[in-house]
Amino acid sequence: MKPQRHIVTRRRAIITGLAGMGALLLPGCTRPGPPTYGHILRMGDAFTYNAQRALLSHRALAKEYQRSDISSFPATGTTNPALDGGNGFNKEYAILKSAGFSQWKLGISGLVARPGAYSLPQLQALPRRTQITRHTCEEGWTAIGEWTGVPLGQLLHHAGILPQARFVNFYSFDGWI
């Protein structure tokens, strides 16, 4: 009988100890209730990005290539949406292209201090960056190309992104999200 009582006492001590350790962690919680999967994934993303920036701050998140690595062929399945009668023809795009995109604007709204629309000359006036990276399309093709434009972070900084903003939604001209 005594050996069984000794095992029960140890089990109670272990369970009580674990519960006590768990109670010590509760003051560190910032939200009531258990963490969600999304919260855990965001913590993992934040750790990954912070570690990348701490260890490799001089390198971009996307691998960059040399000019000699640029693909010598156009991306498979690409079309010119301004060609009348062509596959993927878009009348609105054709009108914008014929005017040199002078009427086109990139709208920014949501959790920013200065929502509005940026014209092509306004975007071209912002600091831009050129990089040679690989584009892997969900349709199965891959190409390495040279890309030049305003980094998203620079554009969001210019628009005054607010601290509570957590996501960026981008809608392409042809409606793909």
What would you say this structure looks like, in words?
This protein has helices at 2-25, 37-55, 91-98, 120-125, 152-159; strands spanning 105-108, 116-119, 129-136, 142-149. The protein is of the alpha+beta class and 177 residues long. β1 (105-108) and β2 form a beta hairpin. The protein is elongated and about 85 Å long. The longest helix is centred in the N-terminal third of the chain and has 24 residues, at 2-25. It starts with a helix and ends in an 18-residue tail after the last helix.
Oligomerization: single chain
Alpha-carbon distance between the two ends: 69 Å
Strand order of the largest sheet: 1-2
Indicate the structural class: alpha+beta
Low-pLDDT sequence parts:
none
Mean pLDDT: 78
Write the layout of secondary structure elements.
Elements: H1 2-25, H2 37-55, H3 91-98, E1 105-108, E2 116-119, H4 120-125, E3 129-136, E4 142-149, H5 152-159
Short description:
This protein has 177 residues and is an alpha+beta fold. It has helices at 2-25, 37-55, 91-98, 120-125, 152-159, and strands at 105-108, 116-119, 129-136, 142-149.
Key terms:
two-stranded antiparallel ribbon; 177 residues; 4 strands; elongated; two-stranded antiparallel sheet
